[in-house]
Amino acid sequence: SAQRIALVPGDGIGPEVTAQAVKACDAAARRFGLDLVWEDYELGADYWRITGQVVPPDVEQELAKADAILFGAVGDPSVPPGVLERGLVIHLRTAFDQYVNLRPVKLLPGVPTPIKGLRPEQCDLVILRENTEGAYVGAGGFIHRGGPDEIATQESVNTRKGVERLIRHGFRLAMGRPRKHVTLVHKANILTYAGDLWQRTFDEVSAEHPDIEVDYVHVDAMCLYLVTQPERFDVVVTDNLFGDIITDLGAAVQGGLGLAASGNLNPTGSAPSMFEPVHGSAPDIAGRGWANPAGSILSAALMLEHLGHPEAARSLEAGVKAVLPRLGAMRGPEMGMSTEDFGDAVAAAISEG
Amino acid sequence: SAQRIALVPGDGIGPEVTAQAVKACDAAARRFGLDLVWEDYELGADYWRITGQVVPPDVEQELAKADAILFGAVGDPSVPPGVLERGLVIHLRTAFDQYVNLRPVKLLPGVPTPIKGLRPEQCDLVILRENTEGAYVGAGGFIHRGGPDEIATQESVNTRKGVERLIRHGFRLAMGRPRKHVTLVHKANILTYAGDLWQRTFDEVSAEHPDIEVDYVHVDAMCLYLVTQPERFDVVVTDNLFGDIITDLGAAVQGGLGLAASGNLNPTGSAPSMFEPVHGSAPDIAGRGWANPAGSILSAALMLEHLGHPEAARSLEAGVKAVLPRLGAMRGPEMGMSTEDFGDAVAAAISEG
Ligand SMILES: CC(C)[C@H](C(=O)O)[C@@H](O)C(=O)O
Ligand SMILES: CC(C)[C@H](C(=O)O)[C@@H](O)C(=O)O
Question: What residues of chain B lie within 8 A of the CB of A224, using their CB?
């Protein structure tokens, strides 16, 4: 039966990259006999400027009924920074309890990485970022705001339930991967409360999985290792803020933000999961055909996998892998292929099988 | 008149690398006619195991009277993680109000960087990390610890005074550099309280310095840019935790932790400043002559500069620059030169001028 996908293209390069992802999904749907129905939602900067709302409750209720959400990017110079990011991206992640932010860091063959001598087989990890709590809860406040004695506090709130479900997802994922290795990334020597909860929970879940090898790495050291020895890692579990930081670095290592995919997963299915490229709306290059749609297409691949279509997912990945080596650069006019041509080439590769 | 330097070699490779820094300082002292007096303090893992104390109050009072502290590294497998780091490093940073953690990220000629095509002139920035507050204050707590409803909170506390003095130091430093550029790194779109204080303070200080160019970069994007375009940056100001993270990454970019120097500065002089390599105690390679003392010697150079001996400081830097290109690797047996030989070669270069 039909699967309903809510499409939220958003701002800047969001619409042009998601259009290619839709094209790729449709090609895969034809080839593998899937029934995908797309419903467009015009959220983002314009919508906010006209209506004063980021996501009105009735739209949220409709989104909640979708089988999945394919998201582009939001953010525009005309909107105060943070309004759309928090009101849309962060809001949906928490409202739909998408507690796993799954971000593969994978160097694809033929993609130039900024790291000397790094080979694809040395860079194939998955970072699972807790996606509903930590420093992202927005807890904190001011005392004497604006005066010389001002204090601003910002709180990271971590629950056993939230930490445990993310870590369990990491161990489940690791069970299905050849290396069966999970790394906890935190800063437990300094963040002694949050770090203690993460470490204790990690140790307990680890004790239930004697087949899985584990280790712990401080977030500062993680940044160093991601550059110098990414082959150390298989599955990485970490909190919301550290995950935000290390996945951007991971994107750099795997050849650029334009290539990085992510899934905001609600593994219970109580609400839809949402798939989005790691990059932002890049208003500076929007509308020129200079955006790399690989991140969006690979996010759509994660979506197809999540919707129960692993073969179709792999055909999108294979299509991207076939086209990437033909690019002159990973974004911009030097790409040597427009955003749309890239999408057409991937769709053709999928159709041809 | 004599300047009294408290030497805290610490654990692991701390003693072997600081010994080379002392040697280099003594060579510079002879050449430039400085009067440096060293006083050794045997703090670290052994001291803690025997006495049960990390820094006893009387030792702290003596350290407080020094003109500067040269610190090696602490940490040993025999001590619970965090005890020495917090009890010694973090404690002295705050007790002595060393509110600026100055960490140059500089690619020296002849040093192999993991980043493709990166040239020394593209990587010459200074990161100023707020060093006394933020998430490092250790505020937070547990509710229902150990149970299924446990919550662990961790608070970042930021004061106007603390933020402003760090930012002002950044602008002062930028005034004396050719590019006159300061970047604020934070995550202001999500950490709306702390980020707001940092951004408002930054904007106000910036308004007083019309000659200085400024910009703002999110910490996640910063990690990406540090790898792909470090030439964007001149002086970077940021909070304690973000500074911890991005300076380890900076160390990777400039060729390794073994080369990275830092100064914990108390610019008011109300207590001594402390100079330490960014690396840790590396117990795995301790005592074998495999540690690279460059980070320690370059930290000593920052110390000499701070003590009012810029020529002597430059002679240490020049010595390190002369010796580094002779190494076969940046650490380990492949270095092709022992830790001590490295120190001797630097001292010889300093003496010869
Ligand atoms: C847009 C922003 C709020 C978001 C985040 O911080 O999570 C982004 O950086 C990401 O990584 O998805
Ligand atoms: C040892 C540790 C407490 C310390 C820190 O987190 O500041 C270290 O990582 C550093 O960067 O100096």
Answer: 248-249, 251-252, 257
